[in-house]
Design a protein that fits this description.
By secondary structure, this protein is mostly helical. It has one domain: ABC transporter involved in vitamin B12 uptake, BtuC, CATH 1.10.3470. The chain contains 17 helices and two strands. It has helices at residues 2-8, 11-29, 36-45, 47-61, 69-85, 91-116, 120-139, 164-170, 179-197, 199-209, 211-216, 221-247, 259-268, 280-301, 309-327, 330-338, 340-343, and strands spanning 172-173, 177-178. It has a two-stranded antiparallel ribbon with strand order 1-2. Helix 4 (47-61) crosses helix 13 (259-268), helix 5 (69-85) packs parallel to helix 7 and helix 8 packs across helix 12 (221-247). The chain is globular and about 65 Å long. It starts with a helix and ends with a helix.
Length: 344
Amino acid sequence: MKRLRGLLKNWEVILLLLLASEFIIFTLANPKFLNPVSILSSITNYIGICIIALFVTFVMITGGIDIQAPSIIGLTSITIGVLWSDAGFNIWVAVIAAIVLSALCGALSGFFVAYCDVQPMVVTLGGSFLYSGLALLISSMSKTPAYQGISKFPMKTEAGEFVSFRFLGKGTIFGFLPMPVFIYIVLILICWFLLHKTKYGRQIFLIGVNKQAAEYSGIHTKVITMSTYILTAIGASIAGILLTSNVDSAKYDLGSTFTLSIITAVVMGGTLSTGGKGSIFGTALASLIICILRYGLPLCFGVSTQNLDLPVGAMLLAVVVGRAIMGRGLLSKYFKRNLGNKSQ
């Protein structure tokens, strides 16, 4: 029983149990759910949520928040489309330019948060409107109407195989693994190493625990804080590239509905909204839980895709309440009272 209580104190174990529960419930409701190709495809569809959540974890551990990342997805997408389709840039030059522009957007917001002490919520809320407006402005420079989106990106061979830019979103590796999922796995490992195995990661945690103490210990808190917003913007840019390549359409509003799911994934993954605590693997598990939920509910229970934000919001509320209960030790007290006596 002591081992059971110890496991249940590990939030990542609880997330694994939740993920397993989803698979069991959805499989019992509809055996077609357990199709590896469909599951991987669903993760690919929501890969933007998964990727951005990894990087928002860095921001929230410092005690900040970033709700502008979805608007940077659209900005990245339409920048690539206009530079390639209308300006005649090479597709990879357009991709690099979009990443640089996104990084500058992250640096701008990070500067106001770190150096001007403006509330992160206010800065990133303003950033979401600013960068969405910039994306719309760039889309107006294209000959293609904004509602249609810029498509027909290079390239697909006569044999039907995706290559070049399209391979990023539609290609497979090892014969079965979608390229976006492979890139996501690589990003998980990179983010885990950065956050949990480097001096940079330790500094992020220290800033979240006590910013003043971090400054007194010689940490450049402003530079570190600003860098987390740049990282998130680059992560959003990568998500925008993969989504644009996957759907073969560059649109200014791509990813505009991701905000709730991203914040839910980070908080559900174990990151405290007040900063100082968080886990990359926890965020990754929470992101998968949300992806599977969005895939399973319409398939197994006929829930409309327009109503999927409702269970995600309910999940966020349940997680906040659950974490509060665990934080007060109520769960461990329950096991000690009810199961501890039986083991004696």
